[in-house]
Fold:
Amino acid sequence: MRILIVEDDVEAGTAMARGLGEAGHEVTHAADGRQGLTAASEKGPFDVLVVDRMMPNVDGLTMVETLRRQGDQTPVLFLSALGEIEDRVTGLKAGGDDYLVKPYAFAELIARVEALARRRETGSVQTLLRVGDLEMDLIGRSVRREGKEIDLQPREFQLLEYLMRNAGTSVTRTMLLEKVWEYHFDPQTNVIDVHVSRLRSKIDKGFEHAMLQTVRGAGYRLDA
Amino acid sequence: MRLPPIFRTTPFRLTLLFLALFAGAASAFLFYIYSVTVLEVTRMADVAITREVQSLEGVYGRGGREAVRRVMIERTQDDRPFLYLLEDPSGHRIWGTIPKGSVARFDDRNTDMVRFSVTAPGETGSVGHDLARGERQKLTGGETLFVGQDVTEAEAYVFRIVRALWGAGGLVVVLGMVGGIIVSRNVSRSVAGLNAVVAAVQGGDLRARVELRGARDEFEDLAAGLNDMLDRLEHSIGGLRHAGDAIAHDLRSPLTRLRTRLEVAILDVEAGKGDPKAALAQALEDADGVLRTFVAVLAIARLQAAGSAPDQTAFDTRQLAADIAELYEPLCEERGLEFKAELSAGLQARGNREFIAQALANILDNAVKYTGSGGAVMLRTRRRSSGELEFSVTDTGPGVPTEQRARVVERFVRLENSRNQPGSGLGLSLVAAVAEAHGGRLELDEGPGKVGDMGPGLRVALVLPRVG
Structure:
C-alpha cells in the first residue's frame, strides 16, 4: 500500500521509510507539514498518512486539519512525544484516526498502519465477518467454526471481532488493550496474553489448523 | 518632591482621604448649625421687639407722647435695654437712645424689621459698631416710634460656639493624622515581612517563610496563605527535582548495562564468536525497560506537578472495578490464584477513569506477582462509614512488614524479596500519586493473616474522598 510519512527528524523518517518499505509498502517521505500537504495533493492518493505532531513550518495538527477541510479522508496515524490523554484527544479531534506515542516499537507502527489501511478497505457496515472457516454474526452475536457453534464471553467476542477485522495483519497487545478494553496504559503483567490464550483455546482447540498465531516481538495475528 | 515613605503607604493615604471627607462633612454640618442658630436668635429678637412696640403703643394710647417717653426712660434702666427713638410727625427727635441718623429714612410702607448698626463706646473708650435690629411704627398722633435691639452679643455667642467646634474639628484632624501614621507604620511592618519573603523567593530561596505573630488579622491570614502556598510549591518542585534525580539515577544503570552489552556484542562479532542477533534482542529489551521506567516516572511527576488529576468525570465505581476485574481474572486463574471481586452497587466517584483504572491495575499486578500459587486475590469496592470510597485489593502473599510499608510507596523502592520479579519499582508510587491527585490516599495494611506457609498477606486500599 502507499504510505506518506511526514516527519521532520530525518533519521527517524528514513528508518521508518526503510522499515515500512521492507514490509512491502511504497513510502513517500516529507520533511514538514507544508511539504506533507504538497505531497498529499500531488503524489496521492495514499492509503495511510503517518504524521508527526510537532514539526516546523506547518505542524502535524494543522496539516491534518487542513486536509480534512479539503475533504481528504485518508486515515492518519499521529506520532507524538506527547503521550498524555488530553494530547491524544487533541490529536483525534484534529482528524487523526490513531495515535502512537514516541518512542514506539517498529512492529507497533507497522501493525497500526496496516490496521488503518484495512479499516479503510472494509469501510462499509458489515453484519457478517468471515476468516477462513471462522464466521462471526455481528447481529446474532454468534461465532461458528466449520459450522460448529463456539460459545464466547462478551469480551472474548469483542477480542475476536477485532482480530477478524484485522485478519492477516499483526495486532499488538497495546492495540488490543486500546481497542478492545479502551485503556491506554501499559500493564506490567501479561494480562492480554492470558485473554488471547483463552480465546485461542476456544477457537482452535479440536481443529487441525491453528488460526490465532503469536507473532514474536509484535503480538498476534489471525490467519485464515 | 518625594514624600517620606510613611506618607506613601496605602493606610496613610486612606487616612488622609477619610480625614478630608470628615472635614468636609463637619464643615457643612457646622455651617448649617450656624445658619439655623443665627436665624433663631434673630427671630427671638424680632419677637421681643414687636412685643415692645405693641406695649409702647398701648402706653401711647393711654397717656400719649409724654407717657411713652417716660416709660422708655424707665425701661432703659433694665438689664438688657431696647434701643429707642421717638420722632415727632415732622421727623424731629423727641427722645431716644440712638442717634437719628442710625436708621434709614422712614417711609409709610416700611414697617419691616431693619438691620442697622449702632456706635457704642467700648470699654476702653474705643468706638465699636454693634449689630442691631429694629422696627418702626407710626403712632396714631403721627409720631414715629422705633424700637431696636442689639444682637451683636447673641450672634457673637453663636459664633464662639461654632469657633470652638472648628477647633475641635481641627484637633480631630490632627489626631487622625497621627493615628494614620501609627497605623501605616504598623501595617508597613506587617507588609514588609511579606515583601521580604517575596523578594527572597524571587531571589531563588524557596525556604523563606513569613514569621507569624499570632495576630489573627487579615495580614496574618495572608502570611499564612503565602507560607502554605510556598510549602506546596516547595513540595511539588521538590517532587519534580526528586523525579529528575530518580530518572537520572534509575536510567543510568540500565543505560550503562545496555551500552556494555552493545560494546561486548561488537567485540564478540569482531572476534567472530557470539550471536549478534541475541545480543541485539537483549539490548532492545533493555531499551524497552528503560523506556517503561521513563514513562512511569514522567506520569508520576506530571500528576504531582498538576496537583489534581485532569479530565475528572463522575463514574460508577462498580463498573470500573468490574472492567479491571474482568481484565485480571484470567491471569489469576492461570497463576493458580483464587480471584474474587466484591463490588458495592451504586457508588459514584469523581475522577480520571484512566488513571484510577491504571492504579487498580498496578495494585492487582503487584498482588498477582507476589502471591504464590494456591493463594487468593480479592478486589473490593465499598463506601466507608466516613463516606470515603475505597478500592481495595487483598492478597495472601508474604505481605510487607509494618516498618517497610511507608517505604514501598517511594519511587524505585523494591524490597529484597522482589528483586527477581519484573517491574520498575514505580507501581505503588504511581498509585499513591493518583490517589493524591484525587484528594485521596493509599493505605497499606496486613492481609488476612498467616495460614500455613501463606500470608500474612497485604491489603492495599486506594481511598477517594466522599463525593458531594
Q: What stands out?
A: The mean pLDDT of chain A is 86. Chain A has two domains: 2-121, 128-222.
